[in-house]
Amino acid sequence: MKIIAVCGMGIGTSVLLKMNAEKVLRQLGIEATVDATSVAIARESRDAQIILTTPDLVDQLQGLPSEIVPIEHFFDLEEITEKLSASLL
Amino acid sequence: MALPRPLSKYPALSSAFAENSIRLGAIALDREHAIEMAGELLVASGRSTPDYTLSMLEAVEENGPYIVIAPGIALAHGRPSEAVIEIGLSLVTLAEPVVFGNAANDPVRMVIGLCATDHSSHIDIMSELASFLGEAGSVNSVLNAVDSDQIRLLF
Predict the structure, then answer these.
(1) Do B63 and A72 count as a contact with CB atoms less than 8 A apart?
(2) For chain B, what is the domain count?
């Protein structure tokens, strides 16, 4: 399964989100790759099952086949666990 | 004066914060001012040029206040470019919290500046930053520090 973590440029926020999402996925025992990427690249991508991003960027990602999961607090593993579980389990 | 210290818990993080990259208790008038100060510290510590600070400001204008990644914490950065000399981090803690426009995580009490030369070589630093900020109590320790040496001892 492919998940993408999206921020404006794909080097800061999305990288932190990717790392914490990977931790959560390991704990949940779910096999998935998480790539960090920019909004511009994410808008061209069609192969991600889930897009993790910040609530600010959700509007810019509408219309893609992926499910969008907004995360508010990037270091709150509980929030990420809860939201990923709701989508994946 | 350098303090004697145990082995660094986060070696990538401690080398990313060059000398003069940390400023405590700064007074920021608004979001832009706070980001500018984080950029100026990257310049002062030899990691980027002033053009990079401008790109940090453009980024938040373009993409909005999502850079407030957790309650009270903003991660400000621009694109990798020739304005970046070397990978680096900077840190500004604010005397008075500043509203960035992020409903979930406002107001901001610390701004972390980041400059990277490409999309991959800063991954170790980001991984340590995620672990450090995820530790219980680390944010309060940063906010309560009285000088930058005290912050350096945290990582």
Answers:
(1) no
(2) 1
